[in-house]
Design goal:
The chain has 114 residues and is mainly alpha-helical. It contains 5 helices and no strands. Keywords: Ribonucleoprotein, Ribosomal protein, RNA-binding, rRNA-binding.
Length: 114
């Protein structure tokens, strides 16, 4: 009789991890996602961002053009990253240099006042 109780207890322990759903594990398959998102309807489509300087064929980004540079500086004074603005790598580097030069000669503020 003691052998029977130990054998039933050992089988219970082996079956406990199998009761978890397959999606709970880190490597398990994910359940299918709804097509329209949480609210239903159309899928969200993000347009590919195009570099403003490439389309307008602007080669030189001047540190004196404060109006242009302010569009690429956030409200707090940070330079906006290219993933948000859509500017290509080449122009983003030139843009950040122009912003830094403009800050050094006090055409642009380093940070906003509180």
């Amino acid at each position: 009789m003691a052998d029977e109780t130990t054998s039933t207890q050992s089988t219970e322990h082996h079956h406990a991890p199998a009761s978890r759903p397959a999606s709970a594990g880190p490597g398990g398959p994910r359940p299918p996602r709804p097509a329209g998102g949480p609210g239903g309807g159309r899928k969200f489509f993000r347009r590919k961002k195009v570099c403003k300087f490439c389309t307008e064929k602007i080669d030189a980004i001047s540190y004196r053009d404060v109006r242009l540079l302010q569009g690429f500086v956030a409200e707090r004074g940070k330079i906006v990253p290219r993933r948000l603005t859509g500017v290509c790598t080449r122009h983003q580097r030139r843009l950040s240099l122009a912003i830094k030069q403009s800050r050094n000669i006090a055409l642009l503020a380093f940070a906003t006042r509180y």
